[in-house]
Structure prediction request, 338 residues.
Amino acid sequence: MQQLEEYKKEITAYSSTDEKSVEEFRIKYLGTKGIVKAIMGEMKNVPNDRKKEFGQVLNEFKTFTEQKFESLKSQATDHQQSGSDIDLTLPGDPVPLGSRHPVTLMKNRIISIYQRLGFAVAEGPEIEDDWHNFTALNLPEHHPARDMQDTFYIQQNPDWLLRTHTSNTQIREMEKGKLPIRVICPGRVYRNETVSARSHCFFHQVEGLYIDENVSFADLKQTLYFFVKEMYGEDVKVRFRPSYFPFTEPSAEMDVSCFICGGKGCRICKYSGWVEILGCGMVHPNVLENCKIDSDKYTGFAFGMGIERPALIKYDINDIRLFSENDVRFLRQFTSAV
Ligand SMILES: [Zn+2]
Prediction:
């Protein structure tokens, strides 16, 4: 009896969640040559008058051992299922970080400035019909200004082309007939031009359009002045040069004082002290009428700028083709750029 008490203590103290040790427990206590069987074998040596009492104690011991075995077994299974052999304190596997494309960085910067002025972002199709890309913009067929924007046509249908500017989105916004309109239109555009370090057959633009009652050239100047100050700093100067676009009248090109040399003259400004950054003007009444907007009641201004050029200057890149060559060594350099 003394021996049984000791076995009980030993069994109670037995603890393992390892399947192998649980099996060792089974063999030691419950196996065919195990302790429980051996003690049961002792029954034959017990005097008859104590057999009943002894049998009860032995049965109790057997049940006790079996219960312990069941409990050890289920602990081992739970342990395996919870997968806690994974060490959560180990450092994680590194996830390689990508970088934003320099054109995207510049585009986002431009958009965020105009958004603060209340401009919403509008997007339109890159494959466009003649009306939205040319005719509605006061560029009828055979108009000489179309030569400035030679593009790619879709062979099956000569009315389809790759847009030469994001102005098609402006037309689509005006056609919706909801006024006033205050949108910027970022996107990719195409021109049939020879690819070189300075120009490509596709590039990106952000155009803007504001139409309401009493919009004047003063609003245009103030909006663009705010933009360049946010973009190039408080000290930047601007100048407007008269220009010609079929879709605006009057039209102007806007230059900013060179933000590289401060106006003294450098390679970027070609030693003139000024850098041309965008074209702009008051929306031509014909364009408003083409979109069924009353040009006696409403006026508006529009502007457009390329994204590649300011990005080339900002990041000191000397070849526009690098933007679309998908060279990872080039793109990796922008991992921490803003
Ligand atoms: Zn300069």
About this structure: The CA atoms of residues 117 and 223 lie 8 Å apart.
